[in-house]
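call fold target=Secreted protein
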Amino acid sequence: MKPVTKLSTLTAAILLPLALASCATSPAETQESASESGTVAASAPTFADLEAGGANEKDLPSELPDNALDGADLDSARWVGEHEGTDVWLAAPVEGSLYDACILAFPDAQNWTSGCGGGVSGPDQRWYAIVPDGEAPPENSVALSENVYVSAS
């Protein structure tokens, strides 16, 4: 093993910051190099159910507690359908959220569930999956709407 000398320590002190600086890039540099190479950054998923125009067929249940849809933009909530007595709403997340959409499965005031992300396990023990536009639905599921699928029993 070679002993550490002042020269090797000095060389390391000079070369290490240079090597690390060449690895780091700013978001602007990353975007610029991506556009030069022809690659495009992934965009946020879209949900046709949330972009539907016109009046919402059903308002959110008035019996819901205030915190039932934490993380969801309540103004964006859209009723997407009913499955065996369970009404389902899809909503956009609040600004700055890490999630793409939120969902509420509501058979009645005592047995509801909600969440943001990929879906929720409903009170009826079925999985209510949120599927962005253009993505494949889960296996063994039935479409409740364009973006919500329910697991088959």
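return ok
The longest helix spans residues 6-23. Residues 6-37 form one domain.
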